[in-house]
Design goal:
The chain is of the alpha/beta class. The protein has two domains: 120 residues, Rossmann fold (3-Layer(aba) Sandwich), CATH 3.40.50.300; 76 residues, no CATH class. It has five helices and eight strands. The protein is elongated, with a radius of gyration of 21 Å.
């Protein structure tokens, strides 16, 4: 699960659609208590409001388990004046609890402010770094949602058996423009093993 949150009208949905290249969106509303399910689930706070008004419990853990691969977008309603209405006070509390639980169990947590994304959490931080703010991102076309910038310059460039897709030009220069091997998150361990193997054989 990927969790995106921030204030209203900060560009959360546009960011998610552009980054993950999908128009499959479910927009929650404050009148439906049905559990949402979609690639992108937008305005989760409105679903929680519907549940609070209906006097129902907010099944956050069930929601997480039924949407493990979703991009979940929620408005942060914690700021401002505490509402006088009892339901709205409870709603604000429930949204806060839900956000904390979803963030804890998400692979990525992203905060949007003024259209600018700040990565607060990434799965296997030391193995995977994504920098969508880079003007060259993504520098290669890659299928799927995960594009790692960890090895912006491939450390296996000098290896003949690098495992990537490359060719030599007429001058014998190695060309890797179409290679996505170092940008796949699963390539991290392979690259490290090859580097260790090279070092051990010297």
């Amino acid at each position: 699960m990927i969790f995106i949150f921030g204030g209203v009208y900060q560009g959360k949905l546009a960011y998610a659609q552009e980054r993950f290249s999908t128009d499959e969106v479910y927009n929650c509303c404050d009148t439906s208590t049905l559990m949402p399910h979609s690639k992108i689930i937008n305005n989760l706070d409105q679903w929680i409001l519907a549940l609070v008004r209906a006097g129902e419990e907010v099944p956050v853990q069930d929601f997480i388990e039924k949407n493990p691969n979703s991009i979940v977008i929620c408005n942060d309603v914690s700021g401002g004046i505490v509402p006088m209405d009892a339901d709205l006070r409870k709603w604000r509390e429930e949204v806060g609890r839900a956000m904390a639980k979803i963030a804890q169990q998400s692979d990525e947590v992203i905060r949007l402010f003024c259209g600018i994304a700040t990565q607060l959490k990434q799965k296997n931080d030391f193995k995977f770094i994504s920098n969508p703010d880079c003007k060259y991102y993504p520098c290669h076309k890659i299928e799927g949602e995960a594009f790692s910038c960890k090895f912006c310059f491939c450390p296996l460039y000098g290896f003949e058996d690098c495992g990537g897709t490359f060719e030599y030009n007429k001058k014998g220069i190695k060309l890797c423009m179409d290679c996505i091997f170092p940008h796949k998150p699963e390539s991290y361990d392979i690259i490290i093993d090859k580097l260790y193997e090279r070092a051990a054989n010297k």
